[in-house]
Write a structure and sequence with these properties.
The structure is a single chain. With 626 residues, this protein is of the alpha+beta class. The strands form four sheets. The protein has an eight-stranded mixed β-sheet, with helices on one face. The model is unreliable at 108-119 (pLDDT under 50). It binds adenosine-5'-diphosphate and magnesium ion (MG). The site of adenosine-5'-diphosphate has 24 residues, from helix 2, helix 3 and helix 4.
């Protein structure tokens, strides 16, 4: 019998595919099972349009059977089968998908979509088999044919006999090599787990003969093996079910079955879209941050299915980084199955789905904020930081999406508030949105710099995350109100009564301040009369873009460029300590040096900055005590 050659380009594609398209060999089974499922879909479709045929769901199934002695794995289906021509055309030419042609000819409408549209899936069989034999009997014919191939060389085709309509695909599994174990594809438990993993939601039963052991009837301590046909897949996926059929418990059960997290999800989102692109999704917002969330082990992404068949465990392209905490699955009829990671990135459908999902998550979070504030705050405690990173990254490209989801602790409300709430409360004379940075709310509360703003009755937002100030810099303003640090040089507050007086004081004490600046040399940029201090003797403020909190963060970075804030030492001239400074300046220069250093170091401590020389600082205190 003459051997038919594969078409030239088919040969090349075949070799390329065997070696590269699929990262995991085990997906060959997914491909063959989905072809079988397609074939049953086709007969189902024919039955719907042809009065002569009836579709009895129970007689349609897929069967997977391994024979270890012969090293064969057989995938049987009761689908539509293939004619001789179809065997030649569909299996002989790669990238000419029979399913696609069928779809065109029959103008399939919604609900009758067929997974394979790409036309290379079948060849995945050669990743694990030396010889592939296809025995098929098509619907409406008495003739059956046997197609056989050993890979790139070509194939043979000859008449054969087969009892029932459908197709058997018989793989002669390769011998083990030094690096590769092929035996596993003949093992019951391994096959079963591959089916569960990739094909759990195929609409037709996938059967296997499962061997188990049981105690013998008369002798309880002796066991015997018995074989029983079992359906391996669970068939109807939860995301295909109607929302009204499902309870919160169902969603929670699915969340834990899928091991999305050990917590209970805070919120689930069940999406079913039936427009230009069709997909279903179940998404979850977890309650707790996964322990590895900020480690490099954490991988964002959603499970991706093409019409019930798993394509990818973590499809990262479906989620923006700022929503990387979202878990769940997406299933679309409009995606082709045989698609590699690289190709997926450019897939138009996938991009549409991603965009859609992104919008949906955002609006769900907004609803949560509006209607279930407590839950939102729980969420925000776990993942608020991620949203702030989102505002900051990509040069602020996503700030509009995210700014209304941000919350900060408020000095007046004593709880988390949104920017919108802050702005809506601002008195008319308040020009800026004020914030103060520090390690904890308790520490910020005691910062001397907050005194004037707080005295004015203005609300202050407390920034305790490293990212906060950077994110706010990227926002620049909210509802046309600019952000302002309480430590910045100019607070934008009219000092009604003592504006004039601080200027004269500045002049009067010019020389004292100049001497103090000399003592501190390059540690600070300037010494000034403070307009913001009320009860504290001293504090640090900054001129320019970089604040003290930003300096701290930047200096923690691995590529630390030693960026410094322009620090200003502010002196409260109404504090009794100021009198001592003046006395020292007139009478005892050594004492002035001592006091200046002490005040500077105090200011550092209040800011949470390290003191350069702690020993000298304690010596200074001792000197003063003597
Ligand atoms: P695709 O599934 O993307 O079309 P494949 O390489 O997986 O590409 O399969 C090629 C074609 O072979 C299918 O489109 C289908 O026409 C035919 N085919 C494969 N397996 C079967 C089967 N079990 N029953 C009927 N036809 C099949
Ligand atoms: Mg296919």
């Amino acid at each position: 019998m003459a051997k038919m050659e594969f078409q030239a380009e088919s040969k090349r594609i075949l070799e390329m595919m065997i070696n590269s398209i699929y990262t995991h060999r085990e997906v060959f089974l997914r491909e063959l099972i989905s072809n079988a499922s397609d074939a049953i879909d086709k007969i189902y479709y024919k039955a719907l349009t042809d009065d002569m045929l009836s579709f009895d769901k129970d007689s349609y199934y897929i069967k997977v059977k391994a024979n270890q002695e012969n090293r064969t794995l057989t995938i049987t289906d009761t689908g539509i089968g293939m004619t001789k021509e179809e065997l030649e055309n569909n299996l002989g030419i790669i990238a000419k998908s029979g399913s696609l042609a069928f779809k065109r000819e029959n103008e399939l409408k919604d609900g009758f979509d067929i997974i394979g549209q790409f036309g290379v899936g079948f060849y995945a069989a050669f990743m694990v088999a030396d010889v592939v034999t296809v025995i098929s009997k098509p619907l409406g014919s008495e003739e059956a044919y046997k197609w056989e191939s050993e890979g790139a060389d070509g194939y043979t085709i000859e008449p054969t006999t087969k009892d029932s309509v459908g197709t058997d695909i018989i793989l002669k599994i390769k011998e083990n090599t030094e690096d590769e174990n092929y035996d596993e594809y003949l093992e019951e438990s391994r096959l079963r787990s591959i089916i569960k993993k990739y094909s759990d939601f195929i609409r037709y039963p996938i059967k296997m003969d499962i061997t188990s052991s049981r105690p013998k009837q008369d002798k309880e301590d002796e066991f015997e093996d018995y074989t029983e046909e079992q359906t391996i897949n669970s068939m109807v996926p939860i995301w295909r079910k109607n929302k009204s059929e499902l309870t919160d418990e169902d969603y929670e059960k699915f969340y834990s079955e899928k091991r999305y997290g050990f917590d209970k999800p805070l919120k689930h989102i069940h999406i079913s879209v039936d427009g230009t692109i069709r997909y279903q999704a179940i998404l979850y917002i977890p309650e707790k941050m996964p322990f590895d969330y900020y480690s490099k082990e954490y991988e964002k992404g959603l499970e991706l299915y093409a019409n019930g068949i798993l394509i990818m465990n973590k499809c990262a392209d479906l989620l923006p980084d700022y929503f990387s905490f979202v878990k769940g699955i997406v299933d679309s009829e409009d995606l082709s199955l045989n698609i590699s990671r690289e190709m997926l990135q450019h897939d138009r459908q996938l991009k549409l789905i991603a965009k859609n999902i992104n919008k949906k998550i955002k609006s769900e979070l907004q609803n949560l904020l509006k209607n279930e504030r407590e839950k939102y705050e729980l969420f925000y405690q776990a993942f608020g930081r991620q949203l702030k990173y989102g505002v900051y990254s990509d040069f602020g490209a996503n700030k509009d999406v995210l700014q209304d989801l941000l919350m900060f602790y408020s000095s007046t409300e004593k709880k988390l508030v949104t920017l919108d709430e802050y702005v809506s409360r601002m008195p008319e004379d308040q020009k800026f949105i004020y914030y103060a940075s520090g390690e904890t709310n308790a520490r910020i509360e005691k910062l001397p710099q907050t005194e004037l703003v707080a005295d004015k009755g203005y609300e202050i937002l407390y920034f305790t995350d490293e990212i906060d100030e950077f994110a706010i810099r990227m926002l620049m303003n909210y509802k046309e109100k600019e952000f302002k640090s309480v430590s910045s040089g100019d607070l934008g507050i009219e000092e009604d009564e003592n504006k004039g007086s601080s200027e004269t004081e500045e002049k009067e004490n010019k020389e004292l301040f100049a001497t103090m600046k000399d003592i501190l040399s390059d540690k600070i940029k300037d010494v000034r009369v403070s307009k913001r201090l009320k009860t504290h003797p001293v504090c640090l403020s900054t001129d320019g873009e970089v604040t003290i909190e930003m300096e701290k963060v930047l200096n923690m970075m691995p590529d630390n460029q030693n960026i410094k804030a322009d620090k200003v030492l502010e002196i409260n001239t109404h504090h009794e300590v100021f009198q001592s400074l003046k006395d020292a300046y007139e009478n005892d220069k050594e004492k002035l040096r001592l006091f200046t250093n002490l005040l500077y170091n105090q200011a550092l401590l209040i800011e949470g900055l390290p003191i350069q020389d702690p020993v000298e600082f304690t010596n200074d205190i001792c000197k003063m005590m003597k």
